[in-house]
Recover the amino acids of this structure.
């Protein structure tokens, strides 16, 4: 069984008025790469990701008795909300099984659409096994997140919209998890424009589609910011489509994904989760691969935890040398702390936090060590502050993990 352009066009008719036809916008804040880049903003979809498309198409085609009985899905994130939203729209009872440690915000967002949420299992695998038990016991229809022809067709409507908005697109850069998104988009795009290039993107820790196509042993695993595409085994239907239609797959490491989330906020004023920023990470990692071409990528989701986003942004400031921690060795005498603070202020630095330690460092009894967290304009500005302190007889050095770029 495969998916055709006719299937995707039929799915588009079903979705009319039910989902947001999200905009395809030029990436005006990212034009320094020499790429005519355009972003399909599925992070603005009703549930914050593209998942509602496929879920709605799948569930709208259920027999009447199956609709009355209800559906079940297993997910820790976007698929859960997509199924819950589609069920609400169609008047279908929905049950979502989520791991016990799923963040409260994701649980509440899913419940907001009227779904019954069951927290069961420490891992996704345990949750999936329990979901299958509930499905069998209650005669519920299981809605798979990606290995389903109707789901693939629903996701493929994104490809129709992108080429309708900008027929000149040369390349599409699409994140890959289970493969439903790229499978649907590739089917639509290659049918409408056979010469278009389809590039997939996977997190380096989860190269499951690339390994599957190459016949390599699976190696996926580990903690990734792009948990939305952290899939160990791609869907069989999607693997077949990828083998025919996907031209290349780029793997992106965690630092590139993190940087892409930061850049989308700072340069485009867009909030994206790790998976949603994967396309940008790939383009940043290989700009020469796309230079001079008209490129489209899907910002496939924006459901990132607020605390995680805060950490990403603060780490980005540190990486750019705009938030630094320096250590000064000072004499333990009145007025020296004020002198250090005054010098930093004169140089235009803003002290965020300061720690004055006498007891716990291996320093002479008449000395102390002073740690200061400082906001700066750039790595160059940071160097100016440290140089000014050293010139005033105060030994100062940069602390922290990674050295800021430009240091």
């Amino acid at each position: 069984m495969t998916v055709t352009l006719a299937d995707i066009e039929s799915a588009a008719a079903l979705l009319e008025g039910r989902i947001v036809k999200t905009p395809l916008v030029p990436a005006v804040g990212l034009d320094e790469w020499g790429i005519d880049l355009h972003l399909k903003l599925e992070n603005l979809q009703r549930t914050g990701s593209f998942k509602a498309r496929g879920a709605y198409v799948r569930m709208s085609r259920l027999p009447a008795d199956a609709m009355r009985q209800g559906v079940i899905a297993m997910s820790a994130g976007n698929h859960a909300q997509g199924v819950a939203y589609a069920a609400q729209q169609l008047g279908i009872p929905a049950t979502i099984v989520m791991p016990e440690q799923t963040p409260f915000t994701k649980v509440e967002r899913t419940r907001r659409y009227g779904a019954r949420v069951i927290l069961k299992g420490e891992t996704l695998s345990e949750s999936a096994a329990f979901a299958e038990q509930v499905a069998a016991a209650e005669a519920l229809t299981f809605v798979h997140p990606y290995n389903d022809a109707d789901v693939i067709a629903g996701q493929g409507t994104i490809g129709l919209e992108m080429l309708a908005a900008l027929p000149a697109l040369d390349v599409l850069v699409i994140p890959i998890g289970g493969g439903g998104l790229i499978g649907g988009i590739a089917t639509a795009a290659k049918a409408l424009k056979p010469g278009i290039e389809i590039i997939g993107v996977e997190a380096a820790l989860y190269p499951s589609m690339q390994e599957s196509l190459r016949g390599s042993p699976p190696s996926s695993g580990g903690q990734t910011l792009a948990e939305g595409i952290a899939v160990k085994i791609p869907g069989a239907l999607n693997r077949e489509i990828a083998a025919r239609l996907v031209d290349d797959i780029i793997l992106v490491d965690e630092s590139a994904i993190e940087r892409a989330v930061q850049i989308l906020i700072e340069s485009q004023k867009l909030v994206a989760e790790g998976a949603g920023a994967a396309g940008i990470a790939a383009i940043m990692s290989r700009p020469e691969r796309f230079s001079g071409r008209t490129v489209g990528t899907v910002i496939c989701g924006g459901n990132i935890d607020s605390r995680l986003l805060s950490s990403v942004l603060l780490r980005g400031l540190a990486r750019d040398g705009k938030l630094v921690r320096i250590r000064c060795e000072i004499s333990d005498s009145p007025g020296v702390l004020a002198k250090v603070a005054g010098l930093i202020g004169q140089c235009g630095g803003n002290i965020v936090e300061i720690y004055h330690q006498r007891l716990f460092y291996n320093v002479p009894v008449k000395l102390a060590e002073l740690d200061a967290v400082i906001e700066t304009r750039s790595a160059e500005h940071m160097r100016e502050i440290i140089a000014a302190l050293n010139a005033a007889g105060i030994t100062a050095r940069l602390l922290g993990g990674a050295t800021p770029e430009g240091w």
Observations:
- The two ends are 55 Å apart (CA to CA).
- The CA atoms of residues 209 and 239 lie 7 Å apart.
